[in-house]
């Protein structure tokens, strides 16, 4: 069972990438909020792709014995919020993401930029660059 938030967030990233999510941003929220350690924000090109990304994340974490505390928006597929306590995932239909601009709202949160082409091995851990 996955217990640390960093590993959990990278498993979410891995699952999202496998479903071709784009514009992935991982924000470290530890020093910004009291309610979570990481926000993963990503986009899909259609409501079906947004739903498929959410399903993949849910299945990936379930393999590790992790279930969400709650989910919102899965039926509509415009903005799906998945609450895993120390990791909160936001999956947007692209125009909806621009409208709500969560990255702008949380501008002070350090961004963990995952390198293109990185390998997510069995542990789900890849290399990272920290910005912010």
Explained architecture:
The protein is an alpha+beta fold and 132 residues long. The protein has one domain: Beta Polymerase, domain 2, CATH 3.30.460. It is 32% helix and 28% strand. It has 4 helices and 7 strands, in the order H-E-E-H-E-E-E-H-H-E-E. A 7-stranded mixed beta sheet has the order 3-4-5-2-1-6-7. Strand 4 and strand 5 form a beta hairpin. Helix 1 crosses helix 2. The chain is globular. It starts with a helix and ends with a strand. The C terminus is likely disordered.
CATH topology: Beta Polymerase, domain 2
- Give the termini distance in whole angstroms: 31 Å
Strand content: 25-35%
Total domains: 1
Please give the CATH class: Alpha Beta
What is the helix tally?
A: 4
Strand count, sense and barrel status of the largest sheet are: 7 strands, mixed
Helix content: 25-40%
* Structural class assignment: alpha+beta
pLDDT below 50 for ≥5 consecutive residues: which ranges? 117-132
Mean pLDDT: 87
The CATH architecture: 2-Layer Sandwich
The whole-angstrom Rg is 13 Å
* Structural shape: globular
Strand order of the largest sheet: 3-4-5-2-1-6-7
Helices, strands, pairings?
Blueprint lengths: L4 H14 L3 E7 L9 E7 L2 H17 L6 E3 L6 E5 L3 E7 H7 L1 H4 L5 E4 L13 E4 L1
Parallel strand pairs: 2-5
Antiparallel strand pairs: 1-2, 1-6, 3-4, 4-5, 6-7
Helix pairs in contact: 1-2
